[in-house]
Amino acid sequence: MTITLYPYLLLALLSVLFALSPVGLASHQSPLNVVATTSIVADLVREVGGDCVSVTALMGPGVDPHLYRASAGDVQRLNEAELIVYNGWFLEGAMDSLLKRLAERRPTLAVAETVAPELLLPVGEEGFQYDPHLWLDPSLWQQTIPGLVKALTELRPICAPEFDANAARHQAELLALHGWAQATLASIPPERRILVTAHDAYNYFAAAFGFEASEAAQGISTEAEAGIADIRAIAELVVSHQIPAIFVETAVNPRNIEAVQAAARDRGWEVTIGAPLFADAMGDPDTAEGSYLGMIRHNVLAITAALGGTPAPWPAALDAWAERWGL
Ligand code: ZN
Questions:
Q1: How far is the CA of 240 from the centre of ligand 1 (A)?
Q2: Residue 170 lies in a domain
Q3: CATH number for the domain including 221?
Q4: Distance 113 CA to ligand 1 centre (A)
Q5: How many whole angstroms from 64 Cα to the centroid of ligand 1?
Q6: Where among 160, 191, 222 does a domain terminate?
Q7: Cβ neighbours of residue 16 under 8 Å, at least 6 residues apart?
Q8: Distance (Å, whole) CA 248 – CA 243
Q9: How far is the CA of 275 from the centre of ligand 1 (A)?
Q10: Across residues 305-320, what is the average pLDDT?
Q11: DSSP-derived secondary structure letter, 278
Q12: Residue 168 falls within a domain, yes or no?
């Protein structure tokens, strides 16, 4: 009798010990149900939250967050979320009042609003206080991580060691990416470092990487239409600075940038349209560009190729990531 009972007792003892260990407790709790607005915010939460979170992004590839309106299904998902994470600073303009109402009754975090305002660029456009496109400067984006760790840890204290370790790893990755982007973009001749894009998302990028200016056919939001005078003024800038390439974006209609190209041609300057940039949305989830690291890599390489620079060696800290995508 004792011989047959012994293995069961041992198993029971082991399972009690396992349940009492931090690893056991964490795995017995279901992952924190996080609903994020943009794919970029969702990527950040997945990187930092790891196995302790389950993240749903409301906006997929090619979706413009300035204009996006929550569907009935989205509202239900948001109401069931244990944590709502959004960018903030009016990026999600059409969802702004809904997100503020939800924040009164559910744990909600606007990651971009956790960064010290003195590091941000004020803007005068209607509805905005600061330019919300922080993620286009990786060193600034990594500053959103401590606020995210704090919010996640409050809701899943048992996962604190995992959140801290993931945060340290991802911050190091973002800083390595930033260093590589800086070295790569510095290879573009200074007189060509003027970036013309579909909407005004690249001001942090321009400031971080030594671009003289970032000009856009549409404003900080894509809501206001570009006027003929705006198109003409940008075309004149392109012609007078002999800018070789201008850029469309994956989530913005290319017609304004095509109009700038046509207006420059009328003035005798042939400007090419570079590979589409990712600004407010990432690429398809099963591609490298469907991750934050991959979308920034793509943008930096596309801008460097079109404006006549040479890529710097890829950082060793991001080798494992690149190998995963066969890059
Ligand atoms: Zn935008």
A1: 27
A2: no
A3: 3.40.50.1980
A4: 16
A5: 7
A6: 160
A7: none
A8: 15
A9: 18
A10: 97
A11: P
A12: no
Give me ligand 1 centre to Cα 268, in Å.
Answer: 31
For residue 74, pLDDT over 90 is answered with yes
pLDDT at 265 (0 to 100)? 98
CA of 67 to the centre of ligand 1 (A): 10
**Same domain assignment for residues 188 and 317:** yes
* Residue type at position 123: V
> pTM of the entire structure?
0.90
Cα 219 to averaged position of ligand 1 atoms, centre (Å): 8
Distance CA(245)–CA(269), nearest Å, equals 11
Element (H, E) at 297: helix 292-307
164-188 confidence digits (pLDDT tens): 999 999 999 999 999 999 999 999 9
CA–CA gap between residue 250 and residue 61 (Å, rounded): 8
Residue 81 domain boundaries: 13-160
Tell me the CA–centroid distance for residue 148 and ligand 1, in Å. Answer: 22
pLDDT recorded at residue 4: 52
Give me the pLDDT at residue 217, please: 87
Name the nearest CA neighbour of 43 among 221, 174, 157: 174
Tell me: do 204 and 251 sit in the same domain.
Answer: yes
Residue 205 lies in a domain: yes
For residues 140 and 269, state if they share a domain. Answer: no
150 and 286 in a single domain? The answer is no
